[in-house]
Task: structure prediction
Amino acid sequence: MECRVLSIQSHVVRGYVGNKSATFPLQVLGFEVDSINSVQFSNHTGYTHWKGQVLTADELNVLYEGIKLNKVNRYDYILTGYSRDTSFLMTVVDIIQELKKANPSLVYVCDPVMGDQGAMYVPEYLLPVYRDNVVPLADILTPNQFEAELLTGRKITTEEDAVEVMDLLHKMGPETVVLTSTDLPSRRGDQFLVALGSQKIVKPDGTVTSQIICMDIPKVDAVFVGTGDLFAALLLAWTHHYPKDLKAACEKTVSVMHHVIKRTITYANEMAGPGKRPSPAQLELRMVQSKADIENPAIVVEAKVLQKYSH
Amino acid sequence: QCIFQNTSSTVQKLFLRQTGEAEGQRGFLGFEVDSINSVQFSPIQGDGTGDFDPAPSYSHWRGQVLTADELHVLYEGIKLNNVHKYDYVLTGYTRDTSFLEMVVDIVQELKRANPNLVYVCDPVLGDHGSMNLYPVYKNKVVPVADIITPNQFEAELLTGKTITTEKDAVEVMDLLHAMGPDTVVITSSDLPSRLGDRFLVSLGSQRHVRPDGSRKTQRVRIDVPKVDAVFVGTGDLFAAMLLAWTHHYPKDLKMACDKTFSVMHHVIKRTIAYAHELAGPGRRPSPPQLELRMVQSKADIENPDVVMEATIIS
Result:
């Protein structure tokens, strides 16, 4: 498999977020990963202390120039995640447009990181940039409920709402949308959260293939960092292997997430000791230790097909 | 296990010249790798600087370098969170004396935090050498190193002694032991191989202290098939693999070298085959075509078929 991914995300010296979360699993699965580090920090910002440097939009351009001048700017996938800076994000948009011209089959996997649980954790002025410039270029989008609501201006209170919102997102650009988590009640009870996915492929002859799925995912009583980045990278890998079968791609992706998170929480609780809440350092994803699960995940979550048609 | 690594990172791959290493590779072997990227470049720099490697390189490179101060800031962040316990430190190519001196300070502090820490140092001075770096390596870096991987030129520069025979090489390695590191591998030399001129000679030496206090040195020689191409990043891969395999065989340099040199052989063989395929018959492969087939070599990295065997000498 000769598949090259350009991943523009954060780098931390210690721990697993951004490019650290994305690179190892993709390499393990046989992808060539070229990474541009949008920042280099000692660790993620959930720790008590963090220090480091950010890449400016100009510096990003400079790096891309280097690749272009050597005529090695042909990519099969682009992957982006967390960003705080409009000019950086706009430079990313320019780069993606150029790369899509160089390879029209390029797939842009976009995690539109803006916030969660009703609160934004990036500056508000990033929303119009995502909505008007970034999402229209995306082929695969992995918003959580809050981000999906922000992008479409629609609230999600029922499964029907979720399906409508995903359809609105399709109209904005991406053929594949996965709502990575929602507050919708799970039929399996309150120990589970609901995730949904929708794939709408319009063929050149006008036929439309559509698949909508939903998954009940066990909740975990801890806050993880880097899981969204891992999710997007895994979804890239598994949609590559199952480009027209969102159910299969999501089952693999969510199953790997489950194994990694389970291993991580067990280790974290062990390190913290009985009755104590693990620290951010202890909760770093057990990525390297999960290699076997990443390579060949046992399926532990089944996606339910809500809708599937071709016309 | 935790490694703190000073790497140069490129957009194209996670290594630059003889610096740095794709984390994934050591991740495959189960090591937790924390990396500080000393530069971020898109393809590797050309030869305009007059540095080593007269072979064709990428014609263009762009990027940013980390200053000694910025390095310090990153290290501070780790220290403040009290997560600065490492089992290994790995460093490679540096162009900057103040950066290198900051690295030494960090290594010394990390060794205070964990006296069992092993510092694996590739003393990259190239074949023409950066003359202002050499005294820093000789006087400050090598003395705190536990494992070093110089080539012949670097070994000669550090000790002030020329190598023309195997006996010279053994003496040079002993001199290097006296400077600090208990494990020395001269990664390549011009010494004639008994297998003929399609081979180059590498040597290794590991010094142990027996329970009774006496010293024992194990020395090995490896005859390595020459490949008609110039690779970049192989020295970095070598240092990383030697770290991994000496970790598994801390008192058996022969085993560690058998594994390390075998992995190198598999990766290089796969790379050259692919590069020639891409270049076409009769054409010299370009730098992008010669990038190491790292990801494709995962199985060989995890479980290398031993195809190179080190000979124990004295």
